[in-house]
Design brief:
Radius of gyration: 19 Å
Structural class: mainly alpha
Helix content: over 70%
Order of helices and strands: HHHHHH
Number of helices: 6
Number of strands: 0
Largest sheet: none
Length: 112
């Protein structure tokens, strides 16, 4: 009987991989935003960005979450901002896609 209860509990707590990945991005974006904007702690920022690099997280997605949300503790707003980013990425209209950048933007401006 105990085994059955354990299995049921684990099944009820199951989260899909995409959901866990999204939670990782949200948590990382919150930590980075706090380190940068609230604490202004350079050493903490460096450690967090090193962690991002080691985990091979999408920098554009993190930046979008950091700067696209006014309140990083508002889970609904973070989901909305992330969903918009992922939809644009799927459509190929995101700036991470070189084809989405116009020719004018690719040509460096001459400094006068």
């Amino acid at each position: 009987m105990r085994l059955l209860e354990t299995i049921q509990t684990r099944l009820l707590r199951y989260q899909p991989a995409a959901r866990r990945e999204q939670e990782d991005y949200f948590s990382t974006a919150r930590s980075l935003a706090e380190a940068h904007f609230s604490l202004a702690d350079e050493h903490l920022c460096d450690r967090l960005w090193q962690d991002v690099a080691e985990r091979h997280l999408d920098l554009d997605r993190l930046m979008n979450l950091m700067y696209g949300c006014l309140f990083h503790d508002d889970h609904a707003q973070m989901r909305e901002v992330d969903a918009r980013y992922l939809a644009e990425l799927r459509r190929g209209r995101h700036r991470a896609n070189p084809e989405a950048i116009s020719r004018q933007e690719r040509i460096p401006r001459r400094i006068e």
